[in-house]
């Protein structure tokens, strides 16, 4: 049947190959995949991570050399010169401002308060009138006592005249002696009555004085405890007002019993030891005074002893119950070796400093410190006057380390800046001229 369909003389058609029979979508997916593989292979060839491992030791050696060079570079520090001078021996303590007198003014009479003559917070002097109690009941009592006194004085005078008459009659043997003795006894009775009446008069006069309440001490009055119109009694616990003496005033502070010998020695010789009171932050001096006395016993629980210092307090910088820092000047050391306190460091071997050598290297030197006065420290041994010590930047130093002082470096740099600037300006101007000339030549060449 095939022969019938294909006429003679014509070739038989060939069957299609498998590649030709493959669907077109599958070929389109393979082509992008091949392109992606080629891109990845090119990136790996450019990055070549297999060669980086061979360069790691070289990089490590370069980093080590850079660290060693950084360690050997001079370290910037600040230095100070060891000086000689007076070093005060000061005992620092904590204290409380305590008034020398703190008086609660109370009434000594029972009565109605009719007037208050002070203002709260006012400064008063001793003897100033503070308040007035109604004096009328006591004035009446005084007049009554004065009347009784006058009556008894008159009776006494009559009894004395009668006694004189009886004594005259007795001398004439006109009356019995018993009558004279009786009259003499009556005179004694009237004398006692007169004395009692006089005491009553004085009592009522004193009551009238107490009716005017006055200030017992000079100082500053506090808040008023009672208002006019109230009935006050001698049993009132709060009183009328509280007066606190401010000028002078004292500060009570404590110190260790170890310092007692150094304090008592000049105190017993009559030396006035200076005491300065500072604020809570221990930065601002408030008032200067003198040590007044030392307590008579040591507190066994704390091993401290109390001291009292007095201050004039003319500026009223010290206030009662205020917390202050005190500095007691015990002695002054002459010709002491002094360094700034930051220069002294503490290590396992004790206190030490970094001393600067002439070649701008440092050496560690142990020192023995003495008294410290804030930013200054005295050195008993280990340093000589004129040597230089490091006061800042010592945390990066060690024995033999090289240093540079920023102050000296800045001076050298400022001295060389003018010359370097002038030398740099000439090449710059020449180069600028050359660039402009070359630019002009390039522009003229095409013409």
Key structural traits:
disordered C terminus, Helix Hairpins, alpha+beta, single chain, 23 strands, 447 residues, 6-stranded antiparallel beta barrel, conserved putative lor/sdh protein from methanococcus maripaludis s2 fold, 5-stranded antiparallel sheet, 8 helices
CATH superfamily of the domain at 243-333: Efflux pump adaptor protein, beta barrel domain
End-to-end C-alpha gap: 91 Å
What value does the Rg take, in angstroms? 54 Å
Q: If helices are DSSP runs of H or I spanning 4 or more residues, what is the number of helices?
A: 8
Low-confidence stretches: 1-11, 17-22, 409-447
Task: Describe the main β-sheet briefly.
Answer: 6 strands, antiparallel, barrel
Strand residues, percent = 25-35%
Q: What is the number of strand segments?
A: 23
For the biggest β-sheet, the strand order reads: 3-12-15-14-13-16
Category by helix and strand content: alpha+beta
User: Which second-level CATH architecture of the domain at 243-333 applies?
Assistant: Beta Barrel
CATH topology of the domain at 243-333: Elongation Factor Tu (Ef-tu), domain 3
Mean pLDDT: 82
Measured as a percent range, the helix fraction is 25-40%
The CATH C-level class name of the domain at 243-333:
Mainly Beta
Shape: elongated
């Amino acid at each position: 049947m095939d022969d019938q369909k294909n006429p003679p003389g014509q070739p038989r058609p060939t069957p299609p190959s498998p590649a030709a029979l493959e669907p077109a979508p599958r070929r389109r997916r393979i082509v992008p995949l091949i392109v992606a593989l080629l891109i990845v292979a090119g990136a790996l060839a450019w990055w070549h991570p297999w060669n980086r491992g061979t360069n790691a030791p070289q990089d490590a050696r370069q980093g080590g050399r850079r660290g060693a060079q950084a360690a050997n570079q001079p370290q910037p520090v600040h230095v100070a010169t060891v000086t000689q001078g007076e070093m005060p021996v000061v005992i620092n303590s904590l204290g409380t401002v305590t008034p020398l007198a703190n008086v609660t003014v109370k009434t000594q009479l029972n009565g109605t308060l009719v007037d208050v003559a002070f203002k709260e917070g006012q400064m008063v002097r001793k003897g100033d009138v503070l308040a007035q109690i109604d004096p009328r009941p006591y004035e009446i009592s005084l007049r009554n006592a004065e009347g009784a006194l006058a009556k008894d004085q008159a009776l006494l005078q009559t009894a004395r005249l009668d006694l004189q008459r009886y004594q005259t009659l007795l001398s004439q043997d006109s009356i019995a002696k018993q009558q004279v003795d009786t009259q003499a006894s009556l005179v004694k009775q009237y004398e006692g009555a007169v004395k009692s009446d006089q005491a009553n008069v004085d009592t009522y006069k004193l009551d009238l004085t107490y009716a005017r309440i006055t200030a017992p001490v000079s100082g500053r009055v506090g808040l008023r405890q009672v208002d006019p119109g109230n009935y006050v009694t001698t049993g009132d616990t709060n009183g009328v007002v509280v007066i606190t003496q401010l000028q002078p005033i004292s500060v009570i502070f404590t110190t260790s019993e170890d310092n007692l010998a150094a304090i008592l020695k000049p105190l017993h010789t009559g030396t006035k030891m200076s005491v300065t009171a500072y604020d809570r932050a221990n930065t601002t001096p408030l008032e200067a005074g003198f040590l007044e006395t030392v307590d008579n016993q040591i507190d066994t629980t704390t091993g401290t002893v109390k001291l009292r210092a007095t201050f004039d307090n003319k500026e009223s910088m010290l206030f009662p119950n205020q917390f202050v820092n005190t500095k007691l000047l015990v002695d002054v050391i002459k010709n002491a070796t002094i360094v700034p306190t930051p220069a002294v460091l503490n290590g396992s071997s004790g206190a030490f400093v970094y001393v600067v050598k002439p070649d701008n290297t440092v050496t560690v030197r142990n020192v023995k410190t003495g008294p410290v006065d804030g930013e200054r420290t005295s050195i008993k041994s280990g340093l000589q006057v004129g040597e230089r010590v490091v006061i800042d930047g010592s945390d990066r130093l060690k024995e033999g380390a090289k240093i540079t002082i920023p102050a000296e470096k800045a001076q050298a740099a400022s001295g060389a800046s003018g010359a370097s600037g002038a030398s740099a300006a000439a090449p710059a101007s020449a180069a600028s001229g050359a660039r402009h000339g070359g630019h002009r030549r390039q522009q003229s060449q095409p013409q």
